[in-house]
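Researcher: Structure prediction, please.
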Amino acid sequence: MDARMESQAPATSPPVIHPAVAPLSFLLGTWRGQGEGGFPTIHSFSYGEEIHFSHSPYKPVIGYTQKTWKLSCGEPMHAESGFWRPKPDGTIEVVIAQSNGLVEVQKGRYSFEEKLIQLQSEIVGNASKVKEIRRCFQLVDGVLCYDVQMATNTITLQPHLKATLKKL
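Model: Predicted structure follows.
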């Protein structure tokens, strides 16, 4: 190969994280762990879980995918995906489509210092019973912890899910 062509090859540099995403860049990557769920109308259960947060260079958005499985046999349980749009003022917008057909539009706040994200549903679509969902994520000593609360048309806001995940 001609030496002149080699010197014209584009230099590879690390991907650029959008400034809006930078405060939440600690989320980026794959997290795996276990959780527990329950609600007044269902039996309590345990599950394995994997969450992946991704970022396309130069874009002000974080991609989100999540899947869970039965700990006893590995059978798939639930999955969801969406996008997180952090804003420079500490607010965040999140859209999530769940495998059961439910769609969430959430808004909330994040704190870079506390490594904390708090979300509350603005809209829960395609849901005959679910009326409200709140999610709280926090990084504590390198472990991503979250809890989800849910309200239905007959039950007020109650704990539904909680999990702890470690980065792979």
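Model: The first helix runs from residue 3 to 7.
Researcher: Thanks, that helps.
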